[in-house]
Amino acid sequence: MFQLKLFFYTFFVTFLFKPIISDNNNTLLIIVSFDGFRYDYIERNLTDNIVNLKSNSSFAPYMNSVFPTKTFPNHFSIATGLYTEVHGVLDNKVYDSSNNKSLGYGYELFHYNDDIVPLWILNERGGGGRRSGCSMWPGSNFEYQGTLPSHFQLYNSSVPWEDRVDTVFGWFKHPDTPINLAMVYFEQPDDICHKFGPNSPEINTEIARVDRIVQYMMQKAEETNLLNKLNFVFLSDHGGQAIEVPGNLINLDSYINKTWYIRDGVPPSLQIYPVKGKEIDVLKTLRAARNEKGANFTAYTQEQMLDRWHYRHCKRTPPILLLADLGYLFLPAENEKQYKITTSEIGTHGYDPVFSTMRAFFMATGPMFKRNFKIDPFENINIYPLAAHMLGLPLPLIAPNGTLSTLQDILVTKTSAADENATTYIVAVIVMIIACIATLLGWLFLRNYLQHKEKLRKSSIASYKILNQGTDEERLYEVRDTQSSDCDDDCDSPT
Ligand code: AMP
Ligand code: ZN
Ligand code: ZN
């Protein structure tokens, strides 16, 4: 009976409560972003590893960024599935007119709406042992709804890339709090693109470095036995555009009196807030600069901002957006040092995402992704619903602007790994229940059989007694009596 109890106990603990006590069934996903890695950088014969990996991957010819094609807006769109006008990170720097202050990288920039749930938080709140780790991903070091990712690394460009990867794989293998989702940011090749341009030998060095770190990640996955379990998404936030210097630099001060307006944002897109009483003058002057003086920028009022930018319906949208023409850049004197111009060409981004030089990179490889599968170009807001589906997470109240259907075809099956795990689990439980019932029936059968046999034995003894007119014991005594009377004769006598 004790063995039977032990068997049932083991069964219940191992199978029925497995989802509660185990961390190991969640989909493993790592989203890796290389800042400014333009979609066509892999055509430079510098990225053998990425090109080889592509044949094992689902990929798009390019991925479309959101407007403006800047780092913080796009990383937050990838992380939330929302357009900029919804998440409110309208640029790397945004003017908050209600408080008359400029929001740079910080908590407030990423908290235009407190109900927004970045992917790493959605995963963290998903339960069932799900945990997130973020390495330098813009916006990931702030709380959302009071939650932080289980693990994060603050942005620090001096940390060697290999060390960052080692840290992230350490999170996947953490003995107490292992992660199932990692979001990892690398600042190149964008930083070098700004300084030397997208056609420079310097950027080629960074492109080759990106390729090496991709290879290092695959190697690390193999060493940690994660290669067959981990799903990788390699992507970027935007591309890079060459700017001839000093020819294509625009000094705004030579067109308009700088005391007439407050300026914020990061070139080539500037937020313009005319001071009180100068609203009409500012707009007229900026228009005249283009129409009469041939300036290479356009001033958009809120009504003129393009709907497809999904930029204008936000309390943070400026009354005037100034956007330089492709290949031109505002560079007022105070910014010259920041850009460290030492060459005849520099690089930038921030223009309309329709320009091919603004296009981003996308490639996904791992057990859940189809191999050598090409999909049409898509907007980065579609990553969030895909990732949520893969991770088995319900979408938050602020539903993403992107849709699952855009990218679902790249998945090997249309059910998530969580669904597959659930099916496997249900089948295992049913099999175990059948096994238990069979064991129980077997045991009952055996018990009945033994009881039946015992009854038979007893009834045959009873019959014997009736037939022989005495009990077993009486007969036994009879036998003993007979034996002892025999012994009376010879047993005690030595032979
Ligand atoms: P952008 O010029 O729009 O591509 O901005 C890229 C720059 O943003 C990087 O070179 C960094 O200086 C900065 N940056 C990127 N990630 C972070 C982060 N997590 N925290 C703070 N600054 C960051
Ligand atoms: Zn960027
Ligand atoms: Zn940049």
Distinct helical segment count: 15
Instruction: Using the alpha-carbon principal axes, give the shape.
Output: elongated
Q: Which whole number gives the mean pLDDT?
A: 87
User: Distance N terminus to C terminus?
Assistant: 53 Å
Compute the number of strand runs.
20
- Extract low-pLDDT stretches: 1-23, 470-495
Characterize the biggest β-sheet.
Answer: 8 strands, mixed
Q: What structural class is derived from the secondary structure elements? A: alpha/beta
Bound molecule types: adenosine monophosphate, zinc ion
Q: Hey, roughly how much beta strand do the residues contain?
A: 15-25%
- Rg, please? 37 Å
Strand order of the largest sheet: 7-6-8-1-9-18-2-19
Helix content: 25-40%
Overall description:
The model is unreliable at 1-23 and 470-495 (pLDDT under 50). It contains 15 helices and 20 strands. Helix 1 (2-16) runs antiparallel to helix 14 (417-468), helix 7 (161-172) packs parallel to helix 9 (201-223) and helix 8 (190-196) packs antiparallel against helix 9 (201-223). The protein starts with a helix and ends in a 5-residue tail after the last helix. It has an eight-stranded mixed β-sheet with strand order 7-6-8-1-9-18-2-19. The chain has a four-stranded antiparallel β-sheet with strand order 12-13-15-14, covered by helices on one side. Helix content is 38%, strand content 16%. It has helices at residues 2-16, 18-21, 48-54, 71-80, 84-87, 119-124, 161-172, 190-196, 201-223, 279-293, 336-339, 383-390, 404-407, 417-468, 472-490; strands spanning 28-34, 57-59, 63-64, 94-96, 101-103, 132-135, 151-153, 181-186, 230-235, 241-244, 249-250, 261-266, 269-274, 297-301, 320-324, 329-330, 345-348, 362-365, 373-374, 378-379. The protein has 495 residues and is of the alpha/beta class.
